[in-house]
């Protein structure tokens, strides 16, 4: 595994991931747990944020404190990535959110871009790409391509599950992008499995369908 992949060992992360995997978990609970997991993973992904010392007034006296010195942007990949924004916002309420519309063509397994609403120029030092599943890696790679062309130089991917194939694909294209996830699963599905190809195995199904009760 690449040294630029960070798998959370936290017991709460693994507990909540297990809840997501269960097929009995209904959409309302699924959305709640995704938000909770996202907050934990974003916490870990921002451990290296730059800070600056400040002097503040407490109710008793002055004290030395620390504030963030970097602005953070969130780039959820529509539609499944939207479920991760609420949890990320709980930690970073000041973060800007830019929506990237990408979907995977189920025939070719390639990403198709259909929406991009980025400002003229970047306004942050760090961008977190949010997507629950890093399967083939196509959508994540395309999202990073867009952000780098836009001018963002520091990017991290935050997701819930990854397949080895997706990690390899993203790092072939962008070895500088750190990957923060809850677990790495065995592989991607193939036609011989009796399921559509390109899904994470054992996975948790389609994260978008399970959040929104579709499919």
Tell me the layout of helices and strands.
Blueprint (H helix, E strand, L loop, with lengths): L4 E3 L3 H11 L5 H19 L5 E7 L4 E7 L3 E7 L6 H7 L4 E2 L2 E5 L6 E6 L9 E5 L2 E2 L3 H13 L4 E4 L2 E2 L1 H10 L4 E4 L1 E2 L2 E2 L11 E2 L5 H6 L3
Parallel strand pairs: 1-12, 4-5, 4-6, 4-8, 8-10, 9-11, 10-12, 11-13
Antiparallel strand pairs: 2-3, 6-7, 14-15
Structure overview:
The protein is α/β, with parallel strands linked by helices and about 220 residues long. The protein has one domain (about 5-210): Rossmann fold. Helix content is about 30%, strand content about 30%. The protein contains 6 helices and 15 strands. It has helices at about 10-20, 25-45, 85-90, 140-150, 165-175, 205-210, and strands spanning about 5, 50-55, 60-70, 70-80, 95, 100-105, 110-115, 125-130, 135, 155-160, 160, 180, 185, 185-190, 200. The strands form 4 sheets. Strands 1, 4, 5, 6, 7, 8, 10 and 12 form an 8-stranded mixed sheet that branches. The mean pLDDT is about 90.
């Amino acid at each position: 595994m690449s040294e630029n992949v960070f798998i959370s060992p936290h017991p709460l992360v693994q507990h909540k991931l297990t809840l997501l995997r269960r097929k009995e978990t209904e959409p309302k609970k699924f959305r709640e747990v995704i938000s909770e997991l996202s907050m934990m993973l974003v916490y870990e992904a921002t451990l290296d944020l730059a800070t600056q010392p400040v002097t503040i007034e407490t109710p008793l006296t002055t004290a030395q404190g620390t504030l963030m010195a970097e602005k953070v942007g969130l780039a959820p990949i529509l539609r499944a990535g939207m479920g991760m924004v609420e949890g990320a916002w709980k930690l970073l309420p000041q973060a800007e959110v830019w929506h990237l519309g990408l979907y995977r063509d189920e025939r070719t397994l390639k990403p198709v871009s259909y929406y991009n609403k980025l400002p003229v120029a970047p306004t942050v030092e760090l961008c977190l790409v949010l997507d629950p599943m890093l399967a083939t890696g196509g959508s994540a790679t395309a999202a990073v391509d867009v952000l780098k062309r836009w001018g963002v130089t520091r990017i991290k991917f935050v997701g819930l599950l990854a397949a080895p194939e997706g990690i390899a694909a993203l790092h072939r294209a962008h070895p500088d992008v750190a990957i923060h996830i809850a677990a790495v699963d065995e592989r991607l599905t193939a036609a011989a499995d009796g399921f559509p190809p390109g899904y994470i195995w054992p996975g948790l199904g389609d994260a978008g369908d399970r959040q929104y009760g579709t499919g």
